[in-house]
Structures are given as C-alpha cells and as structure tokens.
Write a structure and sequence with these properties.
single chain, 473 residues, alpha+beta, Triger factor/SurA peptide-binding fold, Chitinase A, domain 3, 3 domains, four-stranded antiparallel sheet, 17 helices, 45% helix, 15% strand, globular, peptidyl-prolyl cis-trans isomerase activity, rotamase, OMP_Chaperone_SurA, PPIase_PpiC, Trigger_fact/SurA_dom_sf
Length: 473
C-alpha cells in the first residue's frame, strides 16, 4: 500500500467524534468506495436523487464487525476536516477500523478492561455535550433521530467503552515514543512539493479569566428559591417536571434529575455525604457543592450504593460581583502593560480557567499547538480580535464560561499568520505531530501483522485492493 504521509499530515479525525455521530445515525452515509462501487444487502439504489446505501458488514474480526456506515462516516469526517478525497485515504481508514476491532478482540484475550464508572462518566459527558450543542428539546431530538435518548445512550456507551479500551491498548504499545528534529525534517522532505497542504490563516491568542465570586447574599437568594421548590414538591408537584424547569444540570433534560445508581467516590463529597444522610424518599434542605446549590431526594439505598434525584441551581453573581471581577483583571492588565509581569506568568498565577492557565493562557488546538484557525476559534473571540491589533491586550470583557459561569477575561492577541503553504518554519508543531503519528502507526501496524494470526479476520472482497491482509503491507 502506498505511503499515507499526506493523509496523516492533513489530520486524522478523532474517533470519539465518530461515536457520537454513529450513535445518532439512522441511515448510513454514502460515498465513493475504494473500487468505485459495491453491492448492498437488502436493496439497491433506485436513482441518484433518492438513493441511499443499505448498511452492510464489510469486515469481521473475531466477534467484532466493521460496517460500511462506520467507514463512510470516518472517511467523510476526514474529508470535512480538510483531507483530500482518495481511494488510498478510504483504505487507510478501513485499516484503522479493522485494527481497532483487532485490539478489542485481543483485549478480551488479554483481559484488558476499563472501569464501568469511567465509561459511564464519559458517556454521560458526551450525552450532555450532544444535547447542549444541539439546541433542541429532547422530544425534537428523539423525533429527528427516530430513537429515544436512552437508546442513544446505551448505543453510545458501548462505543465509548470500545474506544477507551482501544486507547488504553494504543497508549501501552506506544508509551515513550518520541521523534527527533531530524526525523521531523526527514518526514517533511518526503512530501512531494505539489502535495504540500495549504494552511489556513491562524492566530495566537491567550486569556486570563476571573470567575465572578458570588456573594453570600446571592447564595442566600438561591437557597430561598430552592426552599420554595422543595415546598412545592412536598405539596405534591412532580419532582422531574420541576427539575426540568429549574435545574442547571444539563443532564436533567433526559433524566429529570434522577442520577441513577452510584457507588462511593462517584459523586463529589458533598453530594455523596447528603445521600448517605437522608432516608429513602426524604428531600434534603439546600446544600452546596462545587457545582452550585442542590436539593436532593434519596430514592433508594443498597449498602454502599444509592439512587438519587436532585435539582441544581447555580447562584448568579450580582452586578457588584461582576464589577469586583472586572476591577481585579484591570489591575492585572495594568501590571502586564507596565511590564511588571509577563502575560503568560500572570495567566498561570491568576487565571481561573484551568484548560488554558497551564499553557500560559494560550488556547490550543487538538494537537497541542497554540496557533488556531478561524474554524477552531470561538466566534466571540474571533470577532473581538477583528477590532484588536497584534500585540494588544484587551480591556476586561464579561462573558459566560462553557459550564455557564459568569466571568470576565482579558485577551492577548499575540500574533497572526496569513494563509500559506505548509513549511517547517511556520508549522513545526503540526509537522512534528504528524511525524509522531506516523511513527506510532508503524508500531501499531507491526503489532497488527503479528496479532492478526491469533484471531479470525475476514475483509469483504470489494476492498481487496486495500491490501489490508497483505504480508508486506
């Protein structure tokens, strides 16, 4: 099989994203196949305007399967993210899917497992993200995709579990792998000049965030609101309906506030302590946790496990609370402008945003680089940069964090790179990551050649030209 260097440099799609789209898929994607066409099971296309491909199994690896829709989704994501369409690219994605299934089969043989609690947490996080990003109601989503959110969650959970096992296997096999500068240069030099990717315009921007500290007065207001809700429940109103109306927990849309069975250590200490203090069906008084203020009803407890439901309300900062945060950042900005402290150092010491503070305040892409394209940048930040000059530090700006907290931030517009053809000088991090990905892929491919003899593998003849089972591949 030909080199996949250009495919890797264009960037492989994160398989976690594939799981979310696959869980919602009703009809498999259509598209070019490595051979230009294939038959389907259960029907055929009847015309270009209304045609669709019935899903089919295209590979079997022990007790695991790869479907045509899985391949088409992965390939389409690759193209959507800037990859060049080609039969070679599709073959590469089929190889990845088959290898992942082989890892799952070998994981069973070698007793490699992931904790159910971790799988549940990751699944719930992805469900919350799906719901929040859709902007739709539960009923609209269920009508759109033809299945209940509980069905989606069950399907997604198995995909999440498989991905976590594959990641665990890959991490173990490629632990400690690194690349040298000479390897990066050699990798880049082998890309044909006429095949160098065109890199979109990018910017480097950093932030220092101050989350508004909610005053005790505001917290007491929230507790009062929850006390009123508690009285309504005790008077006979439905807990789930009130949770959907008032709770700030994003999962409430699908679960009505019911958290399901949890063991010790699964929830934050404050929540868990309350669960073991209450009697079945008892409703707590308002109590605080790092997420906000709750009221909880214990549904049932069995030994060290419990099922509960809750309503969470995050106290809202007052105008004065926001003004205090603004003054705090304004004083830090003054120190930076007067060169009393560097922006990166100030971000590490004072910023409340955990994902960026460790990186000196800089936003980063999936590969860890600090140059982001327009598509990777928050639109609100992009429009703000449009009114700034390179090197400028903004005045404090009020905004809301991804988890809904009221906050203020200052932005540092460090630099901008115009659209250009890929080069070592301007794109070292991207090329270094592509080099590392290829090196790891070779290690995994060697493992595949050795491990494939331990399990049954069958590839649909339509994909023979991919040479997945060739000895010299």
């Amino acid at each position: 099989m030909k080199s996949v260097r250009n495919i890797k440099f264009a960037g492989l799609v994160v398989m976690a994203c594939l799981a979310m789209s696959a869980a919602f898929a009703q009809e498999p994607a259509t598209g070019e196949t490595p051979t230009g066409g294939e038959s389907t099971t259960g029907g055929e296309s009847t015309g270009e305007s209304n045609s669709f491909v019935v899903d089919k199994i295209i590979a079997k690896v022990d007790n695991y399967i790869v479907t045509k829709s899985e391949l088409e989704q992965a390939y389409q994501d690759y193209v959507t993210n800037g990859g060049s369409p080609s039969p070679q690219a599709k073959c590469q994605y089929l190889a990845m899917l088959v290898r992942n299934k082989l890892m799952l089969a070998k994981a069973e043989i070698d007793s490699v497992v992931v904790l159910d609690g971790e799988v549940d947490l990751n699944t719930q996080n992805r469900m919350d993200m799906i719901i929040s990003q859709s902007g739709r109601s539960v009923a609209d989503l269920e009508e759109l995709y033809g299945k209940t959110l509980e069905q989606v969650k069950l399907e997604l959970r198995e995909q999440v579990r498989e991905q976590m096992i594959v990641s665990k296997m890959e991490e173990e096999m490629t632990k400690g792998v690194a690349v040298t500068p000479s390897e990066v240069k050699r990798f880049f030099s082998k890309i044909p000049k006429d095949s160098l990717p065109y890199i979109s315009a990018s910017v480097e921007v950093a932030q220092i965030v101050r989350i508004a500290k909610v005053s005790e007065a505001q917290k007491n207001i929230t507790k009062g609101e929850l006390m009123d809700i508690r009285k309504r429940i005790l008077a006979g109103e439905n807990f789930a309906e009130l949770a959907r109306k008032y709770s700030d927990d994003p999962s409430v849309i699908q679960n009505g506030g019911e958290m399901g069975w949890s063991g010790r250590g699964r929830m934050v200490p404050e929540y868990e302590a309350m669960a073991f203090k209450l009697k079945p069906n008892e409703i707590s008084m308002p109590f605080s946790s790092p997420f906000g203020i709750h009221i909880m009803q214990l549904i049932e407890r069995r030994g060290s496990e419990y099922n509960s439901r809750h309503i969470l309300v995050s106290p809202k900062p007052s105008t004065k609370d926001l003004q205090n945060a603004t003054r705090y950042l304004d004083s830090i900005r003054t120190l930076i402008v007067n060169d009393s402290i560097k922006f990166q150092k100030a971000a590490k010491e004072f910023s409340d945003d955990v994902p960026t503070k460790g990186n000196g305040g800089f936003f980063s892409d999936r590969e860890g680089g600090t140059r982001l394209t327009v598509d990777e940048l928050d639109p609100i930040i992009f429009f703000k940069l449009d009114s700034m000059t390179v090197g400028e530090i903004s005045q404090p700006i009020a905004y809301r964090t991804d988890d809904g907290k009221d906050a203020v931030r200052i932005l540092f517009y460090k630099g901008r790179v115009a659209p250009h053809e890929a080069s070592l000088e301007q794109d070292w991090t991207k090329i270094q990551n592509a080099t590392l990905a290829e090196k790891k892929d070779k290690i995994l491919q060697k493992w595949f050649q050795k491990a494939r003899t331990d399990v049954f593998i069958n590839i649909d003849p339509t994909y023979d030209n991919c040479g997945l089972l060739d000895e010299r591949r």
